[in-house]
Specification:
With about 280 residues, the chain is of the alpha/beta class. The protein contains 14 helices and 8 strands.
Length: about 280
């Protein structure tokens, strides 16, 4: 699905927790796709293109990402983002759904899932934050820059040079960053780092998302029985596959851990063929 077609599918809805830009394509059982920090719903475009013939695929942008605005007072904690996700589902009257998430979106999905298990048919997580690994050790220096207010100005300067951004921030999430289309790279980077104001809000998101929020839901995760699939790239320096297996030991609903050799954080975009068949099998 090219970017023009993708943008033509966009809608926007006002919820009790804020405005949300989203894509809603296809017909059938609802699947909700949640991205993480620094990307947007474009992360899912290839998977959705494969699934739209059999599923209603709904992919929101998190606040300050893609087409979703963010306000200075908006709650950007995991709990706040999970409430936004629930308000979004209510606004679109999505009903029962299958949930798929990546990166920070996976942490949001966990908080959402344990509080709204009755809404979920299934959960599927790709490489993402889990208890004990938020933020990941390799990402902690970035969070520390955000805590000191130094990330925003550095990122705005970096965003002015797409080649450096490709090799730097996004390069860690792709096996082949040189093959990411320039328009996709720009669509990821511009909303979060296009202005200093936007970058300050991104700093606020990174410092609002806390590991303690995942610690707080541990008892609920230990009782979570919704069928849960983990599809995990083994080449990700932030979210090693050991964290997927640790999660599987904690959560009784986990049915399978699928390891994707060499895949990195953003493999749902780069290698959708290593995700979509597993989702179909999980849903069946």
């Amino acid at each position: 699905m090219d970017l023009r077609t993708w943008e033509d599918q966009r809608g926007r809805v006002s919820t009790a927790s804020g405005e949300v830009s989203y894509v809603d394509v296809g017909e059938g059982p609802v699947t909700l796709f949640v991205h993480g920090a620094g990307t947007n719903n474009l992360l899912w475009r290839k998977a959705i293109a494969e699934l739209a013939g059999e599923r209603r695929c709904v992919a929101p942008d998190l606040p300050g990402h893609g087409g979703s605005p963010v306000t200075a007072t908006q709650d950007l904690s995991l709990n706040g983002l999970a409430r936004l996700l629930e308000d979004f589902c209510e606004s679109l009257e999505l009903g029962e759904l299958d949930l798929v998430a990546n990166d920070t979106g996976g942490a949001v999905a966990q908080v959402f899932a344990v509080h709204h298990a009755g809404r979920l048919r299934t959960l599927a997580l790709t490489n993402c934050d889990t208890q004990g690994n938020l933020p990941p050790a390799a990402f902690r220096p970035i969070v520390e820059l955000a805590e000191r207010g130094e990330l925003a100005p550095r990122s705005v300067r970096l965003a002015a040079h797409p080649g450096r951004m490709r090799a730097g921030a996004l390069g860690g999430g792709y096996e082949r960053p040189d093959e990411v289309p320039g328009e996709v790279l720009e669509a990821f980077v511009r909303p979060v780092f296009g202005t200093l104001e936007a970058a300050r809000q991104f700093e606020r998101l990174l410092t609002s998302v806390r590991g303690e929020e995942l610690d707080a839901i541990e008892p609920l995760l230990k009782a979570f029985t919704v069928p849960t699939l983990l599809v995990w790239g083994t080449g990700d320096p932030n979210f090693g596959v050991e964290w997927a297996h640790r999660f599987a030991e904690t959560v009784p609903g986990v049915t399978e851990v699928v390891e994707v050799p060499g895949a990195k954080l953003f493999f749902p975009d780069e290698r959708p063929a290593d995700l979509v068949p597993h989702l179909r099998r999980h849903w069946a």
